[in-house]
Amino acid sequence: QVQLVESGGGLVQAGGSLSLSCAASGRTFSNYAMGWFRQAPGKEREFVAYISWSGAGTYISESVKGRFTISRDNAKNTVYLQMNSLKPEDTAVYYCATGRGGSLSMVLATTASGYDNWGQGTQVTVSS
């Protein structure tokens, strides 16, 4: 079992930036891919970004492409989500999750079924 703890959320004005972190423990972090998802009130959880075990493979949702970047530091057991040019529609609880393997196909990487452990989430609120 792996434990995931997200941090870095908060309140920011539109156009601002936030950097989310997700610290993992309890399993060999470098063995598995990681993903970020988000869920806004009244909406389904949606894919945001994916990174393979080595960091060589990434997928980014079209809704955040060009504004968000995913990265990881296997020495620190941490995955990051850098969010720039934030918009009010980015407001959501952001979750990190461990992938069901070191590298996932695009189909698995972009759906919740491709992940097996989830953090508690961190709230991101973007004011207009």
Number of β-strand runs: 11
Mean pLDDT: 96
* Alpha-beta classification: mainly beta
Summarize the biggest pleated sheet. Answer: 7 strands, mixed
Which overall shape is indicated by the principal axes computed on the Cα atoms?
globular
Provide the low-confidence segments as ranges: none
- Helix content, binned percent: under 10%
Radius of gyration: 13 Å
**N-end to C-end Cα span:** 40 Å
Number of helices: 1
The run of helices and strands is EEEEEEEEEHEE
Strand content: over 45%
How would you concisely characterize the structure shown here?
This protein is mainly beta. It has one helix and eleven strands. It is globular and about 40 Å long.
Protein architecture, described:
With 128 residues, this protein is mainly beta. Helices cover 3% and strands 48% of the residues. The protein contains one helix and eleven strands, in the order βββββββββαββ. The strands form two sheets. Strands 2, 4, 5, 6, 9, 10 and 11 form a seven-stranded mixed beta sheet that branches. The radius of gyration is 13 Å and the shape is globular.
Kindly list the characteristics that best describe this protein:
128 residues, mainly beta, 1 helix
Give me the secondary-structure topology.
Elements: E1 3-7, E2 10-13, E3 18-25, E4 34-39, E5 46-51, E6 58-60, E7 68-73, E8 78-83, E9 92-99, H1 106-109, E10 115-118, E11 122-127
Parallel strand pairs: 2-11
Antiparallel strand pairs: 1-3, 3-8, 4-5, 4-9, 5-6, 7-8, 9-10, 9-11
